[in-house]
């Protein structure tokens, strides 16, 4: 039986969705945002759903605004552009406001979907051990294996999965291109089937697709150009699909709207209830704006030469260079071939390290959790998951291959680099709770990285950021070997030991305002024991070449 072909995503939602259903939002790099907005528009005030998705961000915020979420299964909640940050909508999430939530890591959530798709009642995950995750789920059992603790996690089987694909053929088979993140697992796990939007429907299957979802799993589909907006879409040239970039301005406006209840309601009326469906949404965006999202659009930001090479470093630039040196030094001495960079200062420092190593003739693969393999960023675009960077990937894969294979299965070959809201002297990372118990952003893939591979953490130092003990353990500390702050790098030889300050390199701001030495700085800027290496290595300030390279990567100064 062929899938129903609907005129628009609103029609699909009305025909196939019923309040109370378990609805999964497929977490590919091109999210089904048109379907998500349709779900919010159609059911606002009339019904709620049990939602699962790896990240409550971007267009998915509309479901929270509409009040249609009864319960959520997530790995992250907040904003990701230009970097990971909390969102007011989820500040009281630990209290069950605006809805009860289960918190997982990115890989463990995907493993639950794979178990559901393959008919297994459980999956075995080697993430989560030593963490306060998962939260909100009572059916998790621990079991022992020879490498330590593994966790038995229950299968996740939604009723319906929402998905956006590059194209469909006339039989209703769906085709995805580029890094596929969760790939087809969420689609195959759905008990009833898939509702899909597609950029186009064509007669013949395209040759260049990375992932295919069979028509027998598809309940209905709707042609929906720009159906992933405001997120981007990877091109599929064999299907005549050019793709498009993430709409950064739209994502910034959305994050600002979420910060103020009055602006939130105004945004919802403008972009959801006031658009008369997806065609009205596109009309409101306008042809000129959409044309500006073409993948070939130039990156216009640039740093003037006089600043790029002669301006003294800011404290943030100083910190990023120290972190990049630490990453590069670790790769050289320990022979890592792959570095997985988490979002934030971690990925910026990793990019700089990879560039510095390349100039020395040392090749290292930079990967990210959505499946981008062996890439370096397009200069001027600092977003970790930018479609511009996709074009330069050596290989397109998914979360299972990266977090499951290169990370969980490649501990001796992969180095992890993470940012942290808080880290204690045992290396335990908190990205889930504020000191007052409010919500930060959750794990994403951070727990999966810190659970399996040697990890370097990049964080600014303060007593609040570096407490003696974190109040919530998002990611275990057993594999964290180094913590790079703005004044130096903390190291330890064994994971059971506290960190000691091993390098000393105070930034310009610290030198100008405080003549304190290493011990006083550790005491003033952290809640840690004062432990100083003997000898303490003194690092030179950033060089003109290092600064010029960093400024070429981040000309707008978003991270600098």
Descriptive report:
- This protein has 560 residues and is an alpha/beta fold.
- Helices cover 29% and strands 20% of the residues.
- The strands form five sheets. Strands 1, 2, 3, 4, 5, 9, 10, 11, 12 and 13 form a ten-stranded mixed beta sheet that branches. Strands 15-14-18-21-22-23-24-25 form an eight-stranded mixed beta sheet, sandwiched between helices.
- A hairpin with a 2-residue loop joins strand 22 and strand 23 (488-491).
- It is globular.
- The termini are far apart.
- The model has no long low-confidence stretch (mean pLDDT 93).
How are the secondary structure elements laid out?
Blueprint: E1 4-5, H1 9-16, E2 22-25, H2 33-43, E3 49-52, H3 61-66, E4 69-74, E5 101-103, H4 106-118, E6 122-125, E7 141-145, E8 148-154, E9 160-169, E10 174-176, H5 185-189, E11 193-202, E12 211-213, E13 218-223, H6 248-258, H7 261-273, H8 278-285, H9 287-291, H10 305-310, H11 315-334, E14 338-341, H12 345-359, E15 365-367, E16 372-373, H13 387-390, E17 395-396, H14 399-407, E18 414-419, E19 422-423, E20 429-430, H15 446-450, E21 455-458, E22 480-485, E23 488-491, E24 500-504, H16 508-513, H17 518-525, E25 532-538, H18 544-553
Parallel strand pairs: 1-13, 2-3, 2-9, 3-4, 4-5, 9-11, 11-13, 14-15, 14-18, 18-21, 21-22, 24-25
Antiparallel strand pairs: 6-8, 7-8, 9-10, 10-12, 16-17, 19-20, 22-23, 23-24
């Amino acid at each position: 039986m062929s899938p129903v072909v609907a005129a628009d995503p609103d029609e699909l939602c009305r025909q196939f969705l019923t309040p109370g259903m378990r609805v999964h939002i497929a977490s590919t790099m091109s999210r089904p945002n048109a379907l998500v907005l349709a779900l919010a528009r159609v059911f606002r005030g009339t019904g709620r759903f049990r939602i699962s998705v790896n990240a409550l961000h971007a267009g998915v915020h509309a479901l929270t605004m509409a009040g249609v979420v009864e319960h959520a299964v997530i790995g992250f909640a907040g904003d990701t552009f230009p970097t990971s940050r909390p969102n007011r909508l989820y500040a009281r999430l630990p209290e069950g406001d605006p809805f009860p939530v289960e918190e997982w890591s990115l890989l463990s959530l995907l493993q639950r979907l794979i178990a559901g798709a393959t008919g297994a009642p459980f999956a075995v995950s080697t993430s989560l051990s030593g963490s306060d995750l998962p939260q909100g789920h009572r059916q998790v059992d621990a079991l022992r294996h020879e490498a330590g603790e593994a966790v038995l996690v229950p299968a996740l089987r939604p009723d319906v999965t929402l998905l956006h694909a590059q194209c469909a053929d006339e039989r209703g088979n769906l085709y995805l291109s580029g890094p596929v993140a969760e790939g087809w697992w969420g689609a195959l796990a759905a008990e009833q089937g898939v509702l899909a939007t597609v950029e186009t429907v064509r007669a013949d299957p395209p040759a260049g697709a990375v992932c295919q979802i069979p028509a027998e799993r598809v309940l209905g589909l709707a042609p929906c150009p720009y159906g992933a907006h405001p997120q981007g879409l990877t091109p599929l040239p064999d299907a005549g699909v050019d793709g498009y970039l993430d709409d950064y301005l739209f994502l910034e406006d959305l994050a600002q709207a979420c910060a103020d209840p009055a602006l939130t309601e105004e945004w919802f009326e403008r972009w959801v209830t006031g658009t008369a469906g997806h065609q009205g949404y596109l009309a409101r965006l306008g042809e000129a704006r959409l044309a500006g999202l073409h993948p070939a659009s130039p990156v216009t930001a640039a740093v003037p030469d006089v600043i790029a090479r002669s301006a003294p470093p800011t404290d943030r630039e100083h910190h990023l260079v120290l972190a990049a040196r630490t990453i590069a030094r670790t790769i050289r001495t320990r022979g890592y071939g792959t570095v997985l960079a988490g979002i934030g200062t971690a990925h910026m420092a990793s990019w700089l390290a990879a560039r510095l190593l390349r100039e020395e003739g040392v090749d290292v693969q930079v990967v990210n959790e959505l499946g981008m393999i062996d890439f370096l960023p397009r200069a001027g675009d600092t977003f970790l998951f930018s479609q511009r960077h996709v074009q330069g990937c050596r290989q397109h894969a998914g979360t299972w291959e990266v977090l499951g294979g290169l990370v969980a299965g490649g501990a001796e070959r992969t180095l992890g680099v993470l940012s942290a809201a808080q880290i204690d002297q045992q290396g335990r990372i908190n990205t889930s709770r504020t000191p007052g118990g409010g919500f930060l952003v959750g794990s994403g893939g951070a727990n999966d990285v810190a659970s399996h591979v040697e990890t370097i953490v990049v964080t600014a130092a303060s007593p609040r950021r570096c407490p003696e003990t974190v109040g919530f353990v998002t990611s275990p500390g057993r594999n964290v070997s180094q913590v790079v702050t703005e004044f130096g790098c903390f190291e330890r030889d064994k994971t059971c030991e506290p960190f000691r300050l091993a390098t000393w390199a105070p930034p310009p701001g610290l030198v100008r305002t405080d003549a304190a030495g290493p011990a006083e700085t550790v005491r003033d800027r952290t809640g840690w024991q004062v432990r100083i290496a003997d000898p303490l290595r003194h690092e030179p300030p950033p060089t003109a070449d290092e600064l010029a390279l960093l400024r070429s990567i981040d000309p707008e100064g978003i991270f600098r």
